[in-house]
């Protein structure tokens, strides 16, 4: 069982990059995606093999997530594809990043302005060097 605190989210699953898309909402994203991956949820996602979490958005209230899910379900396919491509252009599965097992591809590295020096440049900036 997962020890992480559940969070409310609207999400999109894909069968493959640019494949079938499923839009859903849940009060526990960790558990719901695991259920999809284990084929415990019957319906569209199972029928079309939508198991890869390619986009999600967290919400403070279930009512917000329901509203967003209903809005996304009314979107045409092109808009949904653009939504995923905007933050996850490689269509990487985000599920491992929920557990810290992989970097979240939606998070861009800090622009340290120093050609990839990263932490060293940041620490130098703190020390005034």
* Overall number of domains: 1
Compute the CA-based radius of gyration.
18 Å
The percentage of residues in β strands lies in 15-25%
The largest sheet, given as strand count, sense and whether it forms a barrel, is: 3 strands, antiparallel
Strand order of the largest sheet: 2-1-3
Low-confidence stretches: none
The CATH homologous superfamily is called: GIY-YIG endonuclease
How widely separated are the two ends? 48 Å
What's the CATH class, please? Alpha Beta
Number of strands: 3
CATH topology name, in short, is GIY-YIG endonuclease
Structural class: alpha+beta
Mean pLDDT: 86
What's a concise summary of this model?
This protein has helices spanning 29-37, 44-47, 62-74, 77-87, 95-98, 119-127; strands at 8-14, 21-26, 52-59. The chain is α+β, with helices and mostly antiparallel strands.
Layout of strands and helices, then pairs:
Layout: E1 8-14, E2 21-26, H1 29-37, H2 44-47, E3 52-59, H3 62-74, H4 77-87, H5 95-98, H6 119-127
Antiparallel strand pairs: 1-2, 1-3
Can you describe what's shown?
- With 129 residues, the protein is of the alpha+beta class.
- The chain has one domain (8-98): 3-Layer(aba) Sandwich (GIY-YIG endonuclease), CATH 3.40.1440.
- The chain is 39% helix and 16% strand.
- It is built from 6 helices and 3 strands, in the order ββααβαααα.
- It has helices spanning 29-37, 44-47, 62-74, 77-87, 95-98, 119-127, and strands spanning 8-14, 21-26, 52-59.
- The chain has a 3-stranded antiparallel sheet with strand order 2-1-3, with helices on both faces.
- A hairpin with a 6-residue loop joins strand 1 and strand 2 (21-26).
- It is globular and about 60 Å long.
